[in-house]
Specification:
Blueprint: H1 2-14, H2 18-56, H3 58-69, H4 73-115, H5 127-151, H6 158-161, H7 164-183, H8 188-197, H9 199-214, H10 224-228, H11 230-267, H12 272-283
Helix pairs in contact: 1-11, 2-4, 2-11, 3-4, 4-5, 4-7, 4-11, 5-7, 7-9, 7-11, 8-11, 9-11
Length: 290
């Protein structure tokens, strides 16, 4: 618990560094440009296709007619854009996490390692670490996408909408951030040992990060106003997602490197000089005191 809270507060303080704040804007610029390009080419077609699907659906068509009778014509107009935004947001969140893992986490890891763990030896470095991290993140992200798609029917059950998505985000955060935090400093055996020994705590960090990552979604509760200001709200939401993921990355980095340091201290073999001294000490005859 001490290590958990210590790494939490350190992550909070590191988020206030100007360097971290600037790093959080880099993925936002890329994602905003990509989102604008996708919106320019596909937004109208996606909204129109959704509107036609709602019109052809007997249940939703009746429901929308019912809203219209009660003077809620604005909801009928806004529902199609809201559905498109709601379906696109999880994909953008996954994309943000992918970008953060590839772009921000190495920079944050270097920052923390230089300032706090400069004596912690690296076990590996270079392109091999980058390739393994990218492959691990991609595989975990694909699994999370499948889990998200499979769990979509559960989102319509009121209690599960606030449980299932954050759990999936938490699991994905735990998988990606733990691996990235240990990739360059820990050997394969050390990484597996640390992740196995601290699996429960790391999963708790991931789940808490998952719930924090769900907070920006509350702005879509504005309803029709959210659809009107989607062009403004979406970049803000993406920046908040990025900053939260940066905090999560820092939390995992501080925790995992401290756990690795403790693991090495507990499993560090005695130095040869110390062993020889013990042998010599044991082999010397004991001279009784007068």
């Amino acid at each position: 618990m001490k290590l958990l809270l210590d790494s939490f507060w350190r992550a909070v303080m590191y988020c206030l560094y100007p360097r971290v704040m600037l790093l959080s804007l880099l993925p936002l610029l890329l994602l905003t440009a990509g989102g604008a390009a996708l919106g320019y080419f596909f937004w109208s077609d996606a909204v129109e296709a959704t509107r036609l699907w709602l019109a052809d659906s007997g249940f939703f068509s009746t429901l929308l007619d019912w809203f219209t009778r009660f003077g809620m014509q604005g909801f009928r107009v806004a529902v199609a854009p809201l559905i498109v935004v709601a379906l696109a947001t999880p994909l953008f969140v996954l994309l943000v996490m992918w970008v953060v893992a590839l772009m921000m986490t190495p920079a944050l890891l270097t920052l923390v390692a230089t300032r706090r763990f400069h004596t912690l030896a690296k076990a590996d470095a270079g392109w091999g670490t980058f390739i393994r991290s990218a492959a691990w993140s991609l595989g975990s992200t694909l699994i999370a996408i499948v889990l998200m798609l499979v769990s979509i029917p559960l989102w319509f059950i009121p209690p599960l909408i606030v449980i299932v998505p954050p759990l999936i985000w938490g699991w994905l955060t735990y998988r990606v951030m733990s691996f990235d935090a240990l990739a360059s400093h820990a050997s394969t055996d050390e990484r597996r040992a640390v992740m196995r020994q601290h699996r429960g705590t790391l999963l708790v960090i991931g789940i808490v990060s998952g719930y924090l990552g769900a907070l920006p979604s509350l702005m879509w509760a504005l309803g029709a106003m959210a659809a009107v200001f989607a062009v403004v709200l979406l970049p803000i939401a993406l920046w908040l997602y990025t900053l939260i993921f940066a905090f999560s990355s820092l939390w995992f980095i501080h925790y995992c490197l401290a756990a690795l340091e403790q693991y090495r201290a507990a499993h560090m073999p005695s130095s040869p000089a110390a062993v020889d001294a013990d042998i010599i000490d044991l082999s010397m005859p004991q001279i009784p005191h007068a």
